Amino acid sequence: MVTQSELDPKLAYIQVTHVTPYLEKTELEDRQTDFEQNHDIDTFMFETPFTKDGKARGNPEEQWKRRTILKTEYSFPYVKKRIKVQSRRTTELSPIEVAIHEMHVRVQELEDVVFMEPTDAKKLQLLLQGSVCVQVNAGPLAYASVFLDPALCNMYPEDKVEELKDIFREFLKICYSALQVNGKLISQDQLEYQEVLRQNYKKLCTSLSSLFGESLWPHDETGSFKRNSMALFSAISGASQNSSTA
C-alpha cells in the first residue's frame, strides 16, 4: 500500500498494477461466457494483501486483502488504449473472507478445466496436485484448519463459517470429478501417480470430515454439482476418447 505522507512532493510517482474485470453477482448471472465477462467492461479491480502488523503476507488467520475497484469513463475495448478513471472505492476483506474468495477461485478453476473440451491434461493435473495437498500449513486444508476447527470457528461470524463450509463441500465434489476425468486421461505409466492423487484426496476428505463432524466422501452420483450429470459424463467420455486416440 502506498502511504502518500511518505512520498516526496517534489517527485512524480507512477504506480503500475494489474487489474481484472470486476462484476457483481447479478452481472455474472447475465454474463455466462468468457467473452461476455471480458468485453464491454467499465469496472475493474486489483487486490493488495496486507496484515495488521504491516507485513504484506502472514498466516491465514492474519491475512487481509484490500480490494480497490475502479470505474472508467467508457467501457473496454475502446478506440483509445487509455481511459480516464471516473471513480475509485476500496473494501477490505477479513481473513475468513480472503479464504472464502480464494476457495471460490479454486473451485471455479477446477470447474473450468473439468468441463473443458478437449481436456487440458497438464492443467488438470497441476490443479489437482495443488488442491488435494494434505499439509496442514498449506493449500485448502490450511484455511479449514484455521477457520473451521470447532475449537476456533466461534471466533468468526457464523454466516461466514457456514459459507466457507459450503464452498469446501463444492470443492471436494469438483475434486472428485477431476479425479474421475484424470483417471480416463492417464497412460499406463501414470497409474501410480493417479493412485497418489486418490490417496491424498481420501486423506483430505478424512481431515475435513473430522473438522465438519460429518462424512464428506462423495458418492459417484454426486461427483458433479452445479452442472448436471450428463455434462460430467460427456467430459469423462470425451477424455476417454482423447486418451484412446492419443
TrEMBL record:
GO terms for molecular function: guanyl-nucleotide exchange factor activity. One of its GO terms (biological process) is small GTPase-mediated signal transduction. It holds the Pfam family DHR-2_Lobe_B. InterPro entries: DOCK, DOCK_C_lobe_C, DOCKER_dom, DOCKER_Lobe_B, DOCKER_Lobe_C. Residues 1-217 form the DOCKER domain. Belongs to the DOCK family. This is DOCKER domain-containing protein.
